[in-house]
């Protein structure tokens, strides 16, 4: 490689690389230089290295500030219509989420509202949520459909996700979650609805390249493992990745099913058992933990974090931003909850929204760490210690954000 052919360098930085080859939980490199060429990190090297000799390009002096990879929110439902605040009041009075769902509320009440909204209306409702995530350092976000549940309405949601990518200049990973709930017109005929997903929705989404992956809600109040199996098999046949909302309220052994398909991630996992942990470890399926939903549902059973850690399963953290069970647009709050509620270390939480979240979206090869060859998506923070990013809420000590090599002030 020709020396000094960088476009811009960030000097005098403390790099929390999350590069697994660098020792320490954050892979911290003091006083280093991050060199960018085009949209890519070209090199990471010590300040006194010969690499800088004769360099004449742009320089940003970080003044000892901390640099992390861009944050990745790898599980959101941020496109929706309507509000579920009244249901939240019911839940606070003691009515369980499952009972509200069975009575036609929950996900289905958001489906009713979302179906009446145009693409533009959904875009305008979603944008402030996405902007809130971006303001905290999110440079890549996963967005699920799942509040349309007809072919036209699911495609409508995915098109909004696609437009958000252009409007907000973030990377978007779109996911088809048609198997979120059985729509009212298919009540009592869940298998017929699954046939619609398999025969029409998945082929249409694959043809229009509107999603990277297919998700399911494998749960007593949603879809059975057999139904999810049919959906995963169709997804694979159309070249789409798979993932699942599994073991959130009960143990349906959905994580084992996701692992059997080599799924990107199994998400929630409060009721995951040892066999599920072992299957995920073997398949390399990422555990996406969603402490926001755990908190809002006032759940008692925590995911088996110790067992996942011991088995070497990668653990990501996401906001699960949605109108019902996790109505907040803050990945930093989700990280904080992972520490306080699930026993994560702050470094593990940060790895969970960078390196591990990238793996959960099948993007581990080009996002999630500060390493030569990865996309130049990174954040400059005015903090002394990485844990400050996770500890102090309400104020975001983000100084600037670099996306695809281009810097903007936070
Ligand atoms: O991830 N578990 C299912 N889906 C969402 C909840 C969505 C909703 O209640 O609207 C979740 O928690
Ligand atoms: Fe979810």
How would you describe this protein?
It catalyses: 4-imidazolone-5-propanoate + H2O = N-formimidoyl-L-glutamate. It is found in: Cytoplasm. Catalyzes the hydrolytic cleavage of the carbon-nitrogen bond in imidazolone-5-propanoate to yield N-formimidoyl-L-glutamate. It is the third step in the universal histidine degradation pathway. Its main location: cytoplasm. The chain has 410 residues and is an alpha/beta fold. It folds into 2 domains: 8-69 and 369-409, Urease, subunit C, domain 1 (Roll); 71-360, Alpha-Beta Barrel (TIM Barrel), CATH 3.20.20.140. Helix content is 36%, strand content 22%. The protein has helices at residues 85-92, 97-102, 107-115, 119-135, 151-168, 190-207, 225-237, 254-260, 274-283, 291-296, 305-310, 331-342, 346-352, 355-360, 387-391, and strands spanning 8-16, 28-37, 40-46, 58-61, 66-69, 71-73, 138-144, 171-179, 213-218, 241-246, 265-268, 286-289, 315-317, 378-381, 398-403, 406-409. Strands 1, 2, 3, 4, 5, 14, 15 and 16 form an 8-stranded mixed beta sheet that branches. An 8-stranded parallel beta sheet has the order 6-7-8-9-10-11-12-13. The longest helix has 18 residues, at 151-168. It is globular. It starts with 7 loop residues before the first strand and ends with a strand. The relative contact order is 0.15. The model has no long low-confidence stretch (mean pLDDT 96). Bound molecules: N-(iminomethyl)-L-glutamic acid and fe (iii) ion (FE). Residues 75, 77, 245, 320, 322 line the site of fe (iii) ion.
